[in-house]
Amino acid sequence: MFQKPQTRRNFLACSTLAVVGPIVQKSVTAATATESDPKLQGAIGIVSAAAAAQLTGRATGRNFTLLELPQILRDELDLTVVDLNTTSFPDFAKVDSAYLSRLRAATEKAGCVLTNLKMNQRGFDMNSADNTIRQRALAEYKRSIDVASELGCRWARPLPQKETPNQKIHIASYQELCDYAADKKVQMLVENFGWMQSDPTSVSQLIAAIGHNVAACPDTGNWNSNDIRYDGLKAAFPRAVTCDFKAKQLGPNGKHNAYDLKRCFDIAWDAGFKGPWAIEHGNPDTSGFLAETRQIRNMLRKWTAERMNPAK
């Protein structure tokens, strides 16, 4: 596992930044941009990072492990999708095949599915002008793609930086990961995070520049303002294969003052996106976490039913 044979193409891709050369922006087709699984349309789950307090033993009330999460999702939340984050593993740097086999078996036993691996390792920069730093980041992301592939995940996403990157380097690095992931039957994702949150066109433009084996993972919460949010979602959802349906503080009866969750859902639906929805809403109190996740689940189910069966 995790062995990377050194082909001539890989050698050239790992050479110094000076010889990266011009970026070829391949045309994006519907097939390359939206390789979603029809079986996942309408499916709902959570982003594992939403349960960060519970997975790290810091929650008020019950805590649980990542290996226990799929069964809890199915039995207590009636959900099936597990969107993974590297921070949810006990120690992602030391993850091995034995643990991955246990996680995949636990997921299958619960009747759930692992869809995505968010590669949120800190301290890696695939946009660095220093080729040594850049190659270190790409090597770690490729190892993570190996993990995603072994778990049966469809998608993986590198962590956007806060600072706007040199686009030539950023696109070249993304394309290298897309090539590597394609051989592993994994598609790379672009999520509006970090530097991308201030530009509603950032997701769609980056996907167009990368050009192959890449799609969008819109996050409803990761925008710097509501003006940017709704325009950004309108631009991203036509290219989306999965969605982080993020909700912040919920008030009585599920009221959400931060932004309009129903409007976010409607923008997705109108763009042709129908799931999977990965709920991202944490609560350090486990009873609250479960109750509020059910609230958001019920919203998504209600809105889906209304759109599928509009009143005549």
| Low-confidence spans | 1-34
Q: Shape, please?
A: globular
CATH H-level superfamily title: Divalent-metal-dependent TIM barrel enzymes
Sequence of secondary-structure elements: HHEHHEHEHEHEHEHEHEH
**Alpha-beta classification:** alpha/beta
Mean pLDDT: 90
Continuous helix count: 11
For the biggest β-sheet, the strand order reads: 6-5-4-3-2-1-8-7
Remind me, CATH topology? Answer: TIM Barrel
The counted number of beta strands is 8
Q: Which percent bin holds the helix content?
A: 40-55%
Largest sheet: 8 strands, parallel
Please explain how this structure is put together.
- There is one protein chain.
- With 312 residues, the chain is an alpha/beta fold.
- Helix 4 (69-77) packs parallel to helix 5 (97-110), helix 6 packs parallel to helix 7 and helix 10 (261-270) crosses helix 11 (286-308).
- It has one domain (27-307): Divalent-metal-dependent TIM barrel enzymes (TIM Barrel, Alpha-Beta Barrel), CATH 3.20.20.
- It contains eleven helices and eight strands.
- The longest helix has 23 residues, at 286-308.
- The radius of gyration is 19 Å and the shape is globular.
- It has an eight-stranded parallel sheet with strand order 6-5-4-3-2-1-8-7.
- The chain has helices at 8-13, 30-33, 52-55, 69-77, 97-110, 131-151, 167-183, 202-210, 226-236, 261-270, 286-308, and strands at residues 44-47, 81-85, 113-119, 155-158, 187-190, 214-216, 243-246, 277-280.
- Helix 7 (167-183) links the parallel strand 4 (155-158) and strand 5.
- It starts with 7 loop residues before the first helix and ends with a helix.
